[in-house]
Amino acid sequence: MKIGILYIAIGPYEKFWSEFHRSCERLFLTGIPKKYFIFTDSKNIQPSENISVVPVVDQGWPRNTLNRFEFFDSISNQLSDTDYCFFFNANTQFLKTILSEEVIPDATHEHLVSLSFHTFLSNPKASWPYDRNPASTACMTFDEGYRYYQGGLYGGRTVEFRIMNAELLQNVRQDDANGVIARNNDESHLNKYLANRHPLCLSTQYGRPEEWLEPTNPSIIFRRKEATLGFVHIFWQKKKPFMYLLRQIHAKLKRTY
């Protein structure tokens, strides 16, 4: 078996790479060969025998995260040399040994695996942050979906992963052509794809935000971005599309009135 690891480190997110790589090598599917595909604009991350650096351009948020399907498609032929592929958020850190029986999906899970926080199950389904905009290909009707999946960890057998990625890429391109951005970007498209499927569902144990208190002994955490990148960076990064939206609304109001 050979595992493909997909990782995006654009701009300051390169700061997470060293710890991610160290903990992944030490704790994730140990004993199984891994090939890392790093999509980055950094000059500090160097290629090696099992690290392939794929240069990309920093297009800001949310384009950098929406572009992931383009990134993965660009190395589709190289991925065919792997048996399974996993995407991890840049701020992922492994804390405990992860065995293949924990994360490798079988046919009963359609050979796909994703992450869903337990906190959503205690809330009414109508409150889950699905995309409800009918103009987007990620739009979910109120009778669709039985889980809300996080975009920070997902994967599967390479054959099924490539099929999924191709469809997600097509949907994002269609949204782009229509001038639409899904509510939660790539995560909304992932939820639409998985809505009527039954992937192996990993709990918060495999992706607990660092600042949360439960579960108390997680296997994987998502490190707090503000602690590494700074609050100001996160604020300004997320503010840009919001300001763009306000400008569009203002322009429409001017045309109307």
Summarize the structure.
Helices cover 35% and strands 18% of the residues. The chain is an alpha/beta fold.
Question: If you had to describe this structure to a student in words, what would you say it looks like?
Answer:
- The chain is of the alpha/beta class and 257 residues long.
- It folds into 2 domains: 3-223, Alpha-Beta Complex (Spore Coat Polysaccharide Biosynthesis Protein SpsA, Chain A); 231-257.
- The chain has 9 helices and 10 strands.
- A 7-stranded mixed β-sheet has the order 3-2-1-4-7-6-8.
- Helix 3 (68-74) packs across helix 6 and helix 6 (158-177) packs across helix 7.
- It is globular.
- The mean pLDDT is 91.
Number of strands: 10
Global geometry = globular
Distance between the termini: 63 Å
Write down the domain tally: 2
Structural class: alpha/beta
What's the architecture of the largest domain, going by CATH? Alpha-Beta Complex
CATH top level assignment of the largest domain: Alpha Beta
- Uncertain runs are none
Q: Mind telling me the C-alpha Rg?
A: 18 Å
CATH topology label of the largest domain: Spore Coat Polysaccharide Biosynthesis Protein SpsA, Chain A
Q: Give average pLDDT, whole number.
A: 91
**Largest beta-sheet details:** 7 strands, mixed
Q: DSSP strand (E) fraction? A: 15-25%
| Biggest sheet: strand arrangement | 3-2-1-4-7-6-8
Helix percentage range: 25-40%
Query: How do the SSEs run, as a string of H and E?
Result: EHEEHHHEEHEEHHEEEHH
The CATH superfamily label of the largest domain reads Spore Coat Polysaccharide Biosynthesis Protein SpsA, Chain A
Quickly count the helices: 9
